[in-house]
Design goal:
132 residues, alpha+beta, 4-stranded antiparallel sheet, 33% helix
Length: 132
């Protein structure tokens, strides 16, 4: 699973030890087709990597994007703590890796260069968003 994480644009530059800690402190969750992972306006404190299945990104009751296996969603949460700006609905049965705020905070506590990591994450998120 480490190799899959390294292929995600947001994590590809991080060292393997960091990625291992993310895996150790995260959990796998299952959702059935048509379940909502979260809804617009929710204030949940987690980010998700889609391991298997397909999800839709919904804003104002319209599908605005589709996310496929081994992509991350709500990665902006890793940098900012803000409410969800869209609804995520499972289109198929899905399996996600849930990364919680507490686990990221614990990992970051071990890194002296967290400010650099945070800025780099934000820049990667912006660059990825601008490509779409």
């Amino acid at each position: 699973m480490i190799e899959k994480l390294k292929k995600l644009y947001i994590f590809e530059w991080l060292e393997e030890a960091f990625l291992k800690k993310i895996l150790e402190t995260s959990q796998i969750k299952l959702f059935k087709a048509n379940d909502f992972v979260f809804q617009e306006g929710d204030k949940t404190e987690n980010s998700f990597i889609l391991i298997s299945g397909v999800v839709s990104v919904i804003k104002w009751w319209k599908i605005v994007n589709t996310i496929f296996e081994w992509d991350i969603f709500w990665e902006i949460w890793l940098v900012f703590n803000e409410p969800r700006t869209a609804t995520i609905k499972a289109e198929t049965n899905i399996e996600v890796l849930e990364i919680t705020k507490n686990s990221i905070n614990k990992i970051m506590g071990e890194y002296k260069n967290w400010d650099f990591i945070k800025v780099t994450l934000l820049n990667r998120i912006i660059q990825n968003h601008n490509r779409k």
